[in-house]
Design goal:
Elements lengths: L1 H10 L14 E9 L6 H19 L4 E2 L2 E11 L4 H13 L5 E3 L3 H13 L4 E3 L5 H4 L6 E3 L4 H15 L2 E6 L3 H16 L3 E7 L8 H8 L5 E5 L2 H13 L5 E4 L6 H7 L7 E5 L9 H12 L6 H18 L4 H9 L3 E3 L2 E3 L12 E7 L2 E8 L6
């Protein structure tokens, strides 16, 4: 504008024309997939809201690509935490021209969906899928912004042996639950403990009396569950009803505000791990919490990770000056940013480098941090 005014002054006012009206921004679709119905809907909504906060903030800066204004639009889909539904939704997003996907929540949904995205060169960044297999399929389009189950399971297993050497495990047979417990078992063995029993349930079950009774006879010091909060909460209630004073542990799927509500007093003393630093210790945690709470209420677990997944994806597009995956994917792989959750960079598989894992314990009805390992734990 300054150069145009200068030219107009030199040549005379008759040569000056008013600038054209600003063009409407082009729409760039970004998919966001999580369970928005069913018992895990509160976690799925957490992901949607975190991603939406990021997209809205970026749009407020009036972004441009190739010199033209753009508006990023979140296309949200419900996979109901179901692998088959996840593939249907993934194909729908591809057909409707999304330029990238934030999601899914469950590893059992992300893994089958990731092949569809990869076949169509659509980058996917999960804010929640922790199964090792998700990023180990050889797809160049697959990323995540939290530590994986190898890191989380090892932390859980080693911490379990601090509470007692006899450890029993239960998994819900999902890709997440089974994968997490497989790593817990390795962690227990590495720390010199013994797995005295392994039981199985499903991600739909609510009655665990039979498997808990079986484990009770083996006198474990600790029970570790691999699954989500809708199962973890009734499981710990039933464990206490059976008179078991055993320590109870689980992964990020149970380390939620909803678990506290569902478990009630029976949840006191439970220990849960979650990839990442405690929200209050995340570099951008205080500001994020304020903005999120004002719009959406309390953070469950995954909102800051979903926020950063969306930021990472859009920033890669802006650096590449293009929304075409073949152009921005190299920038995505080279990501080096400071997010809400802390430093974000990826290894050659798409895993978050140096991802921390934090252990929490329920004390007086609240999750309180106990220990952080990896990442910025020592800082």
């Amino acid at each position: 504008m300054r150069s145009k005014l200068l030219i107009a002054c030199i040549l005379g006012a008759s040569y000056w024309t008013a600038p054209a009206a600003a063009a409407d921004p082009a729409t760039v679709k970004i998919g966001c997939v999580a369970p928005l119905t069913g018992p895990q809907a509160h976690l799925g909504k957490d992901i949607e809201n975190g991603a939406r906060l990021a997209v809205d903030a970026i749009n407020a800066t009036n972004p441009t690509l190739a010199g033209k204004p753009v508006k990023f639009v979140l296309q949200v889909e419900d996979d109901a935490a179901d692998p088959k539904t996840a593939t249907v939704v993934a194909q729908k997003l591809v057909d409707e021209g999304v330029k990238g996907v934030v999601g899914h929540l469950n590893s059992g949904a992300s893994i089958p969906a990731s092949r569809i995205y990869a076949d169509n060169d659509i980058p996917q960044i999960s804010p929640a899928s922790t199964a090792v297999a998700y990023t180990h399929q050889g797809f160049k389009t697959t990323y995540r912004v939290m530590a994986n189950d190898s890191q989380q399971g090892q932390a859980l297993g080693k911490y379990a042996t601090k509470l007692g050497t006899r450890v029993a495990v239960i998994d819900d047979r999902t890709a997440y639950g089974q994968g997490l417990i497989d790593e817990v078992v390795k962690g227990v063995a590495a720390a010199g403990g013994e797995v005295v029993g392994r039981e199985y349930t499903t991600d739909k079950s609510t009655d665990f009396t039979a498997i808990l009774t079986s484990l009770k006879s083996k006198k474990p010091d600790v029970v570790v569950f691999g699954g989500m909060d809708p199962q973890a909460a009734p499981m710990i209630r039933q464990l206490r009803t059976l008179g078991m004073k055993t320590a109870f542990m689980g992964g990020d799927g149970m380390q939620s505000a909803e678990f506290l509500k569902l478990a009630g007093p029976a949840g006191e003393g439970a220990i849960g791990s979650s990839p990442g630093l405690p929200l209050a210790k995340m570099p951008g945690g205080a500001d994020f919490s304020k903005r999120f709470n004002e719009r959406f209420g309390k953070v469950q677990i995954y909102a800051p990770f979903a926020h950063d997944a969306a930021v990472v994806m859009i920033q890669a597009m802006l650096r590449a000056d293009s929304t075409e995956p073949e152009k921005y994917l190299p920038e995505l792989a080279k990501t080096r940013i400071d997010g809400v959750i802390g430093p974000i960079a990826f290894d050659n598989k798409g895993d978050l480098k140096d991802g921390p894992v934090t252990l929490y314990q329920v004390k007086k009805g609240h999750w309180e941090p106990v220990e952080t390992v990896g990442g910025q734990a020592a800082q």
